[in-house]
Amino acid sequence: MDRNTHLGLDLGLCGSPGTLSEGGATVQLHTRADMAADDRGLVHGGFVFGAADHAAMLAVNDPNVVLGSADVRFLAPVSVGEVVDFLARLDERDRRKRKITVTGQVGDRAVFSGQFTCFVLDRHVLDG
Q1: In this predicted model, what pLDDT tens digit does every residue of 10-33 receive, in sequence order?
Q2: When you count CB atoms within 10 A of the terminal residue's CB, does the N or C end of the chain come out lower?
């Protein structure tokens, strides 16, 4: 399946797409030193969230998908050098509205979980 959304993202910052299927996607985030929030190597949660959001958008995979809301939990810290694997699953589809579950793991350790609500618009959000 081809990637149809968020084609302009910096994949180094937002994670690289892996498997894409109808209603599902994986993204892998290789964390780097420029993602650190401090001198101990704690990865800023914004990068983790960005990769999770990327996975959610890919699970919908429509050029006009936008994020409406997210209810997320950061379950464990991520350190520079770790690889976070995200799995996104489309749970509900109601006209324009989509609900997606995203989980993130470093190896066997759960680091992120979230419920994303997205909307598929008729045209690009900036087309007013």
Answers
A1: 999 999 999 999 999 999 999 999
A2: C
